Amino acid sequence: MSSSPSVGKLAMPDSASAERTGAEPSLRGDVPRQAFEDLALLAATLCGTPLAMLWLPGHARPWIVADLGIPAGCVAQARAVCERLASHASDSLRVVDDLALDRRDAPQADDDALRFQAGAALHDREGNALGVLGVFDRQPRMLGERQRAGLAALARQASYLFELYRYTDEQRRLLDEREALARRLEHDRADLQRRHDDLEHSASHDALTGLFNRAALGRLLDDPEGPRLQGAPFVLVLLDIDHFKQVNDRYGHLLGDRALRAVADVINASIREGDFAVRYGGEEFLIVLPDTRLDAGFDVAERIRLRVMAATLPFPLTASIGLASGQPGQDPPEAVFDRADQALYRAKTAGRNRIVADDTPR
Ligand code: GH3
Ligand code: MG
Ligand code: MG
């Protein structure tokens, strides 16, 4: 009788020595080794052998061993046996009582040679081979019916456990994939939103000055969230740069552009929140001042006119301004705009660099 497996010493081969067969789908994580070690230990205990081995080739560390005291050479032999048994997957339980009598599997006769081996095949539900649960001894032995049935039952438990683990691993992989996909989708959605915002911005803003463009004006006035020209008097201010053609002709288009940006900056810095400015034409700007009376609008216009003159540019720059006020419900913005335009024309003809407020009696 061989040594009984009373000592629960479990030896784990290092992963470097563990090989993959590549025959089974590989798993990403490590199997729950303790659970398989327990099954190997139960197999050794059940069969009274000093060595039990689980061979799970679909896993990165396929060898799980319950070694209750046996020379290392025997462990290596047992591995070779497991791999060989795995290729005879049709035999669900294969027992050799004494290898010395079995010509096929007979090892070299020495003290460290295995004499007894029993291997139970592990299968998944589709009948595909998963591996082998083997028990080994240096002594010849015989397994009783109950031991054979018990070894086969432990092999089934190992199969269930391995399948369960494989299923969990697959679920985890699918979940990771889904999360990665969700992250990618969210990234794409944010990217689309950014592009949409950029497009929307460029459709409603002037690229040179950053002010609203003319196309945005109607939408801004109709927008219930936008500046309302209802409920309080409002002022429209039209500004036109003086002799701007000469600026371009003398200093070039690039400096002309710089002047346009400087005027836009002056306007932005001179209006309050709720007001807004539009680049209405080449060198013409419209400033909408909701909830503003004409004299207050005139002050804003004067501030802008003085700041345009003081702008840091390599040439003097002036602007002419016309403005008009409207009463909500009484003056349509288009009519107020026309009056501001006429006032601007008067500012031009009166000599430029000045402000004319519309004083049409209404
Ligand atoms: P006035 O005092 O009567 O307004 O004379 P003006 O020269 O300013 O007016 P005019 O309408 O004759 O010329 C406007 C000039 O503005 C002509 C055009 O080349 C220039 N302009 C329009 N858009 C741009 C632009 O985006 N960049 C530059 N650099 N110049 C522009
Ligand atoms: Mg003009
Ligand atoms: Mg001009």
In a nutshell, what does this entry contain?
With 362 residues, this protein is an alpha+beta fold.
What does this structure look like?
With 362 residues, the chain is of the alpha+beta class. It folds into two domains: 15-173, Beta-Lactamase; 212-357, Alpha-Beta Plaits (2-Layer Sandwich), CATH 3.30.70. The chain is built from eight helices and eleven strands. Helix 8 links the parallel strand 10 and strand 11. The radius of gyration is 45 Å and the shape is rod-shaped. It starts with 32 loop residues before the first helix and ends in a 5-residue tail after the last strand. The structure holds 3'-deoxy-guanosine-5'-triphosphate (GH3) and magnesium ion (2 copies). Residues 240, 281, 283-284 line the site of one magnesium ion.
